[in-house]
Design goal:
The protein is α/β, with parallel strands linked by helices and about 400 residues long. The chain folds into two domains: about 130 residues, Aspartate Aminotransferase, domain 1 (Alpha-Beta Complex), CATH 3.90.1150.10; about 250 residues, Type I PLP-dependent aspartate aminotransferase-like (Major domain) (Aspartate Aminotransferase, domain 2, 3-Layer(aba) Sandwich), CATH 3.40.640. It contains 13 helices and 15 strands. The longest helix has 22 residues. About 45% of the residues are buried. Bound molecules: pyridoxal-5'-phosphate. Pyridoxal-5'-phosphate (PLP) binds next to α5 and α6.
């Protein structure tokens, strides 16, 4: 049994705040503060350059990649950390297109996060080989898989609505059509059970500052299936993806395995915070996290719909089709969310009219959601945003 009162106590949560934006930036794990402090004093402070070897800095992208791997159903040696998610999207797509040279279409859906689509477009333009980024409605993806599709590139959970794709089914369908898959797990890692190896996924990428609580700008991850990795030709061929970086050879030779997806010097401060944030997940069952996320989301939807009938559910009603967030539409969503944030209920706004509420079971309970729904009812019935003041609600983070 996962003890969620215990996990909640592992976070710093400000007084008088109900934090429903952990799908954009997870809160501070207490252990991260301690770990980064220790790194500053003992490692950077005292070891200086020796930290790369004596404190294990150089190996940490692979070691921490294996820790993330356990949360996304990936065996050891299949995940490595570094850079930002946008960079990892680019790397994965460049590698995948290279493996299917005879096809020209990158298939994705309209709900995908803009950065993923921008990176794909930028890569396609610089390749100059006539590739096409084809976008269809999320529910039309499977039918759009034909013999022109090289790569199916999807984000499993839609950042705006929380709609959840069926990874196993779509991966099978893509393979049957002769295409490779790239799964973006930005809103799935730490939110629900993921089985990359079992699903036969080809590539996956994700960030660690959302449900994994690694901190602002925490390093991203990339997964490559072992059947592909030795054939992957890294486009971002930085020295730390080289087979022998410290031989300082002018010619590039990719390192064996997932190491070739490293680029440059790893972000050690961010990795240390993430490493501590991952301690929170030790002994946690993602099935239990998912069950609690569904129960909390159902409760929140029921509370909000009974108290605020003017709000329209923007997320799928069936829990099986939803990630770990609940979104509502309202004409004045932006102002409404500003008024909520002023009153300590922190969610966020995404254009044109969506309010998002992240449901993170490690530190939220039903009481928080009842408080939040109560504040929403009060703000709505008194139309409090008509006297606006205070912070703007569009925080960074997808
Ligand atoms: C959050 C998010 C990003 C953000 O990418 P960064 O490079 O980390 O800024 C990209 N894609 C998706 C799907 C996201 O949800």
């Amino acid at each position: 049994m996962t003890d969620f009162a215990r996990t909640r106590a592992l976070f710093h949560l400000p007084e008088d705040v109900v934090y429903l934006d952990g799908n954009s930036l997870g809160p501070l794990p207490l252990a991260a503060r301690e770990r980064v402090g220790r790194l500053m004093e003992k490692e950077w402070g005292e070891l200086l350059i020796r930290g790369w070897t004596e404190a294990g800095w150089m190996e940490s992208p692979a070691r921490i990649g294996d820790r993330v791997g356990r949360l996304i159903g990936a065996g050891p040696g299949r995940v490595v950390m570094g850079d930002t998610l946008s960079i990892k999207v680019y790397q994965a797509l460049a590698a995948a297109l290279d493996l299917v040279p005879e096809r020209r279409v990158v298939l994705s859906d309209h709900g995908n996060f803009p950065s993923d689509l921008h990176m794909a477009k930028g890569l396609i333009d610089s390749l100059g080989r006539g590739h096409e980024l084809r976008l269809v409605a999320p529910e039309a993806v499977e039918a759009a898989l034909d013999e022109s599709v090289a790569v199916l590139m999807l984000t499993e959970v839609d950042y705006r609505t929380g709609r959840l794709h069926d990874m196993a089914r779509l991966t099978r369908a893509a393979h049957a059509a002769g295409a490779l898959t790239i799964w973006d797990l930005a809103h799935s890692a730490g939110a629900l059970p993921i089985h990359l190896d079992a699903a036969g996924a080809d590539f996956a990428v994700g960030c660690t500052y959302k449900f994994l609580n690694g901190g602002p700008g925490a390093p991203a991850f990339i997964y490559v299936a072992p059947r592909h990795v030795e054939r992957v030709r890294p486009t971002l061929s930085g020295w730390l993806g080289h087979e022998a970086p410290f031989d300082f050879e002018p010619g590039y030779r990719p390192a064996p395995g997932i190491t070739r997806m490293r680029v440059g010097t790893p972000p050690i401060l961010g990795l240390a915070a993430l490493d501590a944030a991952l301690d929170v997940w030790e002994g946690i069952s993602l099935e239990a996290v998912r069950a609690r996320s569904v129960a909390l989301s159902e409760r929140f939807i029921a509370e909000v719909e009974s108290r605020c009938p003017e709000l329209e559910l923007a997320s799928p009603r069936s829990p099986a089709e939803r990630g770990s967030q609940v979104s509502f539409r309202y004409a004045d969503s932006y102002s409404f969310m500003s008024a909520l944030i002023e009153r300590g209920v922190i969610g966020d706004f995404r254009p044109p009219d969506v309010m998002r509420f992240g449901i993170a079971p490690l530190y939220l309970d039903a009481g928080d959601l009842v408080i939040a729904a109560g504040v929403m009812e009060e703000v709505l019935s008194e139309r409090k945003w008509e006297r606006p003041r205070g912070r703007r609600p569009e925080a960074a983070g997808g």
